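Known limitations

Files may contain more than one protein. Parsers should not assume a single record per file. Below, a two-record file is shown to illustrate correct handling: read the sequence, read the token line, then continue until end of file.
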Amino acid sequence: MSQYCTFTLDRHLFGVPVSSVQEVLRAQGLTRVPLAHEDIAGLLNLRGQIVTSLELRSRLGLEPRDEGAPSVNVVVKTPDGGVVSLVVDEIGDVLEPSRDSFETPPDTVPTTIRDLVTQVCKLDDHLMLLLDTERAVTPGGTS
């Protein structure tokens, strides 16, 4: 069985493999980047390493977070060995669902979200969307 780090965005529950998560941080001060793609929230200094912070709400086509609303940074590893911070609404639990609870995303999942989700997992009271972090960290397009 695999474990998934979960987080919420606009009442949607997402999961990423625990193995792809470097760390989870409370909201961090970001340095805005002029002329950057709208999905880029800014840059953060992570113990001397400059990390791109991606606004996942924008990337998934969701409504912007209310001004002053809390957020969390989920720092995930990228395929090229770097890291990217995903700005999410709230961190959840680490879940270990059974393999038979996964299936392909249904048509009821909005297209902008379905394009970045590999599978869905039926839980007792939620549907967990498994985020394709490789596609999600590619601003402005899918790989």
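...continuing to the second record:
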Amino acid sequence: MKFAMLGAGGIGCLYAARLIQAGHQCVLVARGEHLQALQQNGLLVDHPDTQFHGSVDATDVAGLMKQHSCSSFDLLILGAKGGATQAMLAEMKTWLQGATTPILSIQNGVTNEALIEQQLGVERTIGGLGIYVSGHIVSPGHISAQGAGQIDFGAWPTAQDNPQMATLCQTLAEVFSDAGIPNRLYTDVRYALWRKLVINNGVNPLTALTDLKTGAITTDPILRRTVHTMMEETARAANAAGVSLTKEDVEEMFDLICNFHDIKTSMQVDMERGRTLEVNEICGPVIENCRKINQPAETTELIYKLLVNATQAHPAEI
């Protein structure tokens, strides 16, 4: 199959490497020094189960649209930051509308699929996320990653609502498995997205604010309690949005992050490197949906406010 990885960062490059090693074509869409390194020196991926060093087909968005037709791809995988989704789709609008190629989002947050649907319709939208994985660009062209690197996905918004995409997802599940990408197929992918947000909202903002890795956050008595509270607020927001999350879901996600590798979250790395944070994509839906039912997510609102103030205090760095 032929794939395009839109936003070939740490996690996107890991998945691309596995697909390439399995014999598939994968065009990596990146920018800046990372793109230059990919084009000149190839891709280097360091992962306990995936070692890759070789030349790759890499380009930017403009190059992708000039060098390839959208219809030549079997699947577009959107791995860019959530804050870039709308702008990227707008930039590619004409190119995308000339085909029927579906898009699979593997991004953080619960709002990306709705943006894809708005432009391309449910018949081309696949919801998803990368889970049990951490990956960062160590230096341009060099990726370090850890974790199983699983993709959880499904037809948007549900398999029942989108049977054509549900059938394609069955095929993709086999392709991913054959490429060494663990995966789980959901009939209602919204449940998977909100469960992942439980973890993202629980730890990502706190790691960015404190510059502590997840292990330090989850073993500190006060911060550990804060993580759990923000996870509970996320579950409350999910239920307000019509997605049923239980106390058991919260406890399972809490246990998972407490026993996962001691990692820097993507938001922590973005904070260190002066990049725009995914705080609106991660905290925003929690705050918004809890307000709708007049049960404010007070802890999430506090951490969100502190993060926004911290970034605004150094506007030249973001």
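Parsers that stop after the first record will miss the second one. For reference, the second record is described as follows. The mean pLDDT is 96.
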